[in-house]
Amino acid sequence: MEVWTANRVGFCPGVKRAFDLALRALSREKPVYFLGELVHNSQAVKMLEEEGGIIVTDPEDIPPFSLVVTRSHGLEKRIKEFLESRQVKIIDTTCPRVKKVQILAQELEKKGYNLVILGSPKHPEVRALLSFISQKALVLEKKEEWGKLRNFSPQEKLAVVEQTTFPREIKEEFTQEIKEEFTHLNLEVFDTLCAETEMRQRDLVESIKLHKVNKVVVVGGKNSSNTKALFLTARRLGIESIWVERVEELEEGYGDKEDRILVVSGTSTPHFSVEDVVKKLKAREASFYERKSADGSHHRENKCGEIHSI
Ligand code: SF4
User: What is the mean pLDDT of residues 262-273?
Assistant: First the structure.
């Protein structure tokens, strides 16, 4: 059995920054309110609660003059204004890459562009983005909606930006479709995708090939969409895959002697969750190469079959 860990595991830079800011706030003041779960991971959320964090979904539940930490997806303007009106101190952990899209959208609007956003209108990042622009932007989530672009005339200037986690392959399809079907439009496509989730996908595919992996263990929250995407990609490649949120979900004795196992994680998975899973798999790996002699001494067989006393 051999175990590999993907190159990029644990929190992405944006989530790590948000989590560090939250822990710093908790070390100074208690309680600290969280508007929604800071990360899509129950272990990380539990850790914040144990440190004195209170998670609420309704801004009305945050008492005046208290301290609130908001999520890396960004904070809707109306909620920000509401909290400010109650003199709530806000630690805004909006990821700098998300912030960049908000700034770009505002600049484009000032330059007279009509905005088109590729993403989900229900996603908190898109909702926050929409709240920062005054016009009504067109949000396109599914391919079937692309035809709505026909409502624009060639005189109107259009700018396309994406939700940072929008799938690149769909964006590329969209760009191609524009070149073929919407040639009359005065449209400019900007690249606002975050490379983090893409790099994890690429890393997964390349590592499977490189290490001739036959099993993948995906570590991450069950409500994390990029974790789910990793799991589905591994399965699509025909690799036996399991998805665990915490080490306890990895069944005892998982892994056979001939297995070549890769461990990957979503962007909201804490590093310690990945380490726990890797440690358990490594212990299983070691068990295949340890033998006990009749005299009670232990020996370890290396992967080439050579025996050493330990
Ligand atoms: S996935 Fe990218 S944009 Fe989203 S929080 Fe992480 S670093 Fe920021």
Answer: 96
Residue positions counted in the chain: 310
Same domain, residue pair 215 and 181? no
Report how far ligand 1's centroid is from the alpha carbon of 297 (Å): 51
Task: Give pLDDT tens digits for 181-220.
Answer: 999 899 999 999 999 989 999 999 999 999 999 999 999 9
Domain that holds residue 112: 97-189
pLDDT in tens, 167-181: 888 999 999 999 999
**In angstroms, rounded to a whole number, what is the distance separating the alpha carbons of residues 191 and 162?**
7
| Cα 239 to averaged position of ligand 1 atoms, centre (Å) | 27
144 is catalytic: no
Query: What pLDDT was estimated at residue 147?
Result: 95
Q: Which atom of ligand 1 is nearest to the CA of 195?
A: 2
Residue 165, domain member (yes or no)? yes
Q: Ligand 1 centroid vs 195 CA: distance in angstroms?
A: 8
Sheet holding 2-5, edge to edge: 2-5, 260-265, 215-219, 240-244
Say how far apart CA 48 and CA 46 lie, in whole Å: 5
Q: Which of 75, 126, 165, 200 to mutate to test the pocket of ligand 1 (most atoms within 8 A of CB)?
A: 165
* Same-domain status, 210 and 275: yes
pTM of the predicted protein model: 0.86
Domain presence at residue 298:
no
Which ligand 1 atom is the nearest neighbour of the CA of 164?
3
Which atom of ligand 1 is found nearest the CA of 72? 5
Say if residue 185 is in the same domain as residue 202.
Answer: no
Query: What CATH code is carried by the domain that includes residue 103?
Result: 3.40.1010.20
Q: Where are the beta strands (DSSP E) in 18-59?
A: 32-35, 53-56
Question: Are 164 and 193 a contacting pair, CB within 8 Å?
Answer: yes
Q: Tell me whether residue 300 is in a domain.
A: no
